[in-house]
Amino acid sequence: MSHNIPQSTLGNYARQYLEYLEIERGRSLKTIENYERYLTRFLTASGAKEPSDVTDDLIRTFRLWLNRQESGVREGRHETLKKKTQNYYLIAIRSFLKYLRKRGVESYSPEKIELAKVAERTIDLLSVQDLHRLLAAPSGDSVKEFRDKAILELFFSTGLRLSELCALQRDIDLTRDEISVRGKGEKVRVVFLSDEAKTAIAAYLKKRKDMDDALFASDKARDDGSLRLTPRSIERMVKHYAAKAGIMDKVTPHILRHSFATDLLYNGADIRSVQMMLGHSNISTTQIYTHVTDSELRNVHKKFHGKSREE
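The chain above was modelled as a monomer; its predicted structure follows.
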């Protein structure tokens, strides 16, 4: 790792920073690979070699360069990097500069780097009716349908990320209403099992014949001999049952995670609790869901407020 970063004083600091992220901050290798790519492009494109080289002009020039980079061709048009992608670079640079400050190295102030304005994020959600139809879609008596029913119920009960659900082990304790999962950054959190999820998982495990350690298994072994379902196979399964349920909108495991969060907020849960259950390290990530519930409250207000005046 870090072999692409230019050889210079600033490049050496960048290597040390990536090692710091891995060892002291416990960031995932995927995160470190991304930060390496962002910093490599920054140092290469800007030509910065010393901490003192990072100035207002250098940052401005790099941002212009970044804004003009092509990301591909769509419908015959050459597209540039999205603002959200550009911000990933700026966040990495800002974090690197904070690390230099922590080391006592004089350089550019990270607070002076402002992120690009991006369009407000929207969330795809299932209607309550579509959600109920989806959860009821696996209705057969095969092991596969029992398994798929358990997966869908577990997604909605816990708000698990796809990778977290795939990693679950078979030795789950169904006498309890909670399980511990290891999420992003190796952080462990507790998620809670609904009665429907526990019933579906118990029925599936009773139906299984294999002895694989994975909670959810395929009928075909992977290259490593494991039967553990892959994320891709679960994505295909969710899409299959959405079609079976007659749902026209796109449905993914992550949309089920959105449905879990908004269901809690609609029913009065506080945002801090939802943040903990989703495993968000920053509450600003969770606050996107409040925009959805705000719009729902607006509909309620419009429907029920001032009715006495109409009489």
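The chain has two domains: 9-112, 128-302.
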